[in-house]
Amino acid sequence: MAMQLLAASLLTSGLVRFFSEHAQRGASQLLMTAGAVGPIPRPPVAAMDCWRPALDDVERISWGRPAKRKGTGSRGVPHRLNAEERILFDLSRTKGYVEIAGSGWRSQRSDSPLVNTYRNWCDARGVCAIFLHKGREVDEVLVDLSPLRTPDEFENAAHFCLSQSASSCGRLQAYSDERIRAPTVEQTGRSSVNNDDEADVSEKDEFTVTSDEIVRARAEDYLTAPIHRLPMYTISWERPRPEAKALAKFLAELLSTAVEKKGRQKALGGPQVTPGKGRRHGGYGIG
């Protein structure tokens, strides 16, 4: 009997030692494989020690009122929303992304006020801006990383988004193909009206240089300039409508772009009354 117990004990200890060594080898091989593939992308982090607009000013200029802080808006960049855009903007706060019909271009303003306002609002909060551009056949989901104001980390943030299985196969537009608007007299504080030739050359150079080149030369502006004067760094996906909405919702949760709903919850919607106790009148009524 004693010999049987001793044999069972030795067998058990041997099995434990075998599985322990096997697990250690498996863990080391997993770490070596991960190191060979490359470092895991880090979640994007926004810069805090930089210029950002106040949420109150973003709200004010969206109604057409002047901002308290200079530089939040610009006369050349429309931010005032109409009634339809106001509804979409209010919904975007809790959804974490904004739905736009097409590009959101409004011919009366020769620009897209909803895109400008939502990007400004995301800049004030220090989160990525997620747009869902609705098309006829397919929709485009676009993530703008510029509100993070960390140009050195844009590439890592993009890899973090593309490394997720639900958001893979995206297209990284290393800085949007859009041209940066030429600084106005209001922004620069000086006028070039006295020299028309020099002004023409300056405007031509400003509009022919790509935003990628401008960002490399103006990395410091990401810490000091308003968002409407900075180029976009975008990731885009083209999906059918149901898949596009699911992707936008996933990215909003991944990047924490939504604002939690405020107000009384359903469970707290009515007064908490204990039936038949501490009541002036009995029964099921309140009074």
UniProtKB/TrEMBL annotation:
Residues 1-18 form the signal peptide. Residues 185-206, 263-287 are annotated as: Disordered. The keyword Signal applies. Residues 277-287 have a biased composition (Basic residues). Keywords: Signal. Residues 185-194 have a biased composition (Polar residues). The keyword Signal applies. It comes from the Eukaryota. This is Uncharacterized protein. It comes from Prymnesium parvum.
